[in-house]
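REQUEST ID: PR-0412
SUBMITTED BY: lab tech R.K.
PRIORITY: routine
TASK: structure prediction, single protein chain
INPUT:
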Amino acid sequence: MQLTSQAFTEGDMIPAKYTCDGENVSPPLAFADVPEGTKSFALIMDDPDIPATVKAARGIEVFDHWTLYGLPGSTRALVEASGEGSVGLNGAGALRYAGPCPPPQHEPKVHRYFFKLYALSGMPAFDAPPTKAELLAAISSMTLAEAELMGRYTRA
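STATUS: complete
OUTPUT:
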């Protein structure tokens, strides 16, 4: 399975439009080579390069920027600022996409953002919007394939 974007390629800089310095909308994404039997997709975006002080203060290793699930298995693309699927909780506890926004006063200045796509054999259901950890636990037994796209961002 493949995950790509028209806005940036693997390892390249994410345009400011998709960050806290721009419109803070999700980038367009495309899915290819989807396995047979895919009933739904889940998508996660996270940042492992958060400052050590934030890691210690919050007891986390990564900041979760976007948790999305319930995308139909027929989906092959998400448009910019997509409203498709069901949104789970991000690292701030909000139900929304939170674009890249690395704090400029901390190292590293350039952060990596990992978009992770999961093709699922079923459709996860939740009583309340899930966190990334809850989503990953729910889909662990139904994941058919995974794909990843990494973009970078730094603030001027």
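NOTES: The chain has one domain: 2-153.
REVIEWED BY: pending
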